[in-house]
């Protein structure tokens, strides 16, 4: 296989020294390798958005069709990766370098959209979640936020089922949200550790939701000219105690999200949300993200929505 | 014959880049169409930022 | 008696969609009361305990293990659950349900080297680059995106002209090539009228009326909204005219655009001056004398353009049409009927449109008698201060930038128009005028989306002892994906007066408002 794109951070690491990893999981459009540093390297099919620590292949194939199996060892050298038999699996020396870091407003290259427009788009995001979001993930739980967050009433949909599952996690969830609103670092860490890993999926619903909240923290802090160090501090608090509490894939995703490092579709969504240049694409961006996984996309958008509401409301206090 | 008039004598075969709804509509009509799963250049944020700055 | 049935797969990873499906399917099995599917995270294990469906093996799971656990009555065999899980897990995810979608234009061309048109609808800055790539690969282009600069447009069109290719756009929403509707276009019968249009819904209206009159189109070429401005100089319109002149299938040529810059109008008209094929030119309110000077037929409305084209095709005289399909007596009755129901003080118009050109046509047809405020006014003194607040006679184009920020275009989803109609509280309104655009690209049921708001608005006025008259037209054909007949029926059932064209709907509205005075 030939790579069309590779995460620049990953490329740098591979160039410093050879990396060895074992195949962790194989899916139709992606494949994960666990390297010696405990990090996941992901191979992606052209249909998936480019993401942190990933290598996207040119060929439109299903990884399930290849003979690469869980547990197999792969060695990554400067230009290509080989399997145990020395066969070249993937070649990445001609790949485009992809920067995973968030595109923020510092540096003056990006222009902020007006607060009025951003609020309007935020409103549309809420409507989108209501009308087109998948209802089996975190969405039923969002009803509980009506007592905490102004403007969230519109997410109260008669059709959404509030079941025993939601009842079970409700108190802890609200407790976390309270600590997040109050920016209480210690409580945030404790609260997050008590809810992470909840829900269906390889990236459980709550984890996707938390990733969305962390992403909104980074981007909205930049947008609102707030202290970025503080933003990173709060996000670090969220992920402080997640080790072993959730799947490895989810742990990695949340760690990347805490720094604002997310896949291309999510980055484009944040840019179309906060700048005034992408406006015709905002709905398209929402749809693209909502398509992730089963409920992952909707859960992430829910996190971005709630996180953004909290930050925008805070500035009015 | 100009290329446009040549087109009028051929079967329309479309490449669609962007809104997937256009692609779906053409498929419904059994028109030959390929949808490009397009994303902005994978050059990362520096390139993106400079492209965006050129927009102003 | 119920008991716990479960399945565990250690160190196993299944994609979320599969997990979701398993969860739904297990819950559907008769006799299953409670079920949980997921990875063995602390929280999920705790939830399993809370739901009463755990055991020691489940408690020992790690977050990287997959499990299914269910509380089911004894009639459900553990094998049933295992078999179902196994079936769903091993169902091969074939990539055949997703057709090959190449990541770039280049790979698309490699995959389908016979392709001839590229339709581009990505964000402005990137759109120009993709269009250039397409032209350089000898492909015709339809560029739906706007936010492309005039300089880029000129460069692209000059390149296209050099290569003899179509460069439809930017901001080109409608085209029909070889009877294939592209982007926002209706399904029109195949025929001999060729259209070159710089305005989307204008082109759609003309083509739809041609179809209604029993004729068809050969080609409908879009040029994009800015083509006839001086910066661009009508480059694509000229290309389109040339192509239609040389097209044996085209027997009558129709040009549609908002009034061009003076020197561009001259250039375009010169191009059709000695055309052996009859040419109909609708510069929507443009200079009639100038058009006739060059031997073309000028028009009073988009409908008039269609009617003239059809007449000329049939070898008949192209007469001005300013009337109605219904007889004078029937129109008189219709007008009187509406006017009789108004209460004292009702006198204003609200034109709520999804198509920009149709809005423009409405205002131009009514401007003799009425001063109309708008977000796209005929003159700047009638610019609405706040486009969200109507004033006296008001016509709104909901497709304009102000209303489409972060929201889909109203032809795709009329939510902004629904909201506006719902919010209008002004008692002095007499008539609401609307367009319903069908065809590919449009919402699957534009009429259905508006009906509740229309009914509610009429009821609101009735409750105040007033009457709200609603007049509209449907831009659509029998072959469009939406049901034309049903659309009309439902509107009429709701008390909407449906006229056969925008021009007639506007004209009727004008009569009604005049009679009130």
Keywords:
heterotrimer; A: 317 residues; alpha+beta; 9 strands; 14% strand; B: 56 residues; Rossmann fold; 3 helices; 2 strands; 18% strand; disordered C terminus
Description:
The complex is a heterotrimer of chains A (317), B (56) and C (517). Chain A has 317 residues and is α+β, with helices and mostly antiparallel strands. Chain A is built from ten helices and nine strands. In chain A, helix 5 runs antiparallel to helix 6, helix 5 runs parallel beside helix 10 and helix 9 packs across helix 10. The termini of chain A are far apart. Chain B is α+β, with helices and mostly antiparallel strands. Chain B has one domain: NAD(P)-binding Rossmann-like Domain (Rossmann fold, 3-Layer(aba) Sandwich), CATH 3.40.50. A two-stranded parallel ribbon of chain B has the order 1-2. The N and C termini of chain B lie far apart (42 Å). Chain C has 517 residues and is of the alpha/beta class. Chain C has four domains: 91 residues, 2-Layer Sandwich (Alpha-Beta Plaits); 72 residues, NAD(P)-binding Rossmann-like Domain (Rossmann fold), CATH 3.40.50.720; 150 residues, Succinyl-CoA synthetase domains (Rossmann fold); 188 residues, Rossmann fold (3-Layer(aba) Sandwich). Chain C is built from 19 helices and 19 strands. In chain C, the strands form five sheets. In chain C, strands 15-16-14-17-18-19 form a six-stranded parallel sheet, sandwiched between helices. A five-stranded parallel sheet of chain C has the order 10-9-11-12-13, with helices on both faces. Chain C has a three-stranded antiparallel sheet with strand order 1-3-2. The longest helix of chain C has 18 residues. Chain C is globular, with a radius of gyration of 29 Å. Chains A and C meet through helix 2, helix 3 and helix 7 of A and helix 1, strand 2 and helix 2 of C. Strand 1 of chain B pairs parallel with strand 4 of chain C, so a sheet runs across the interface.
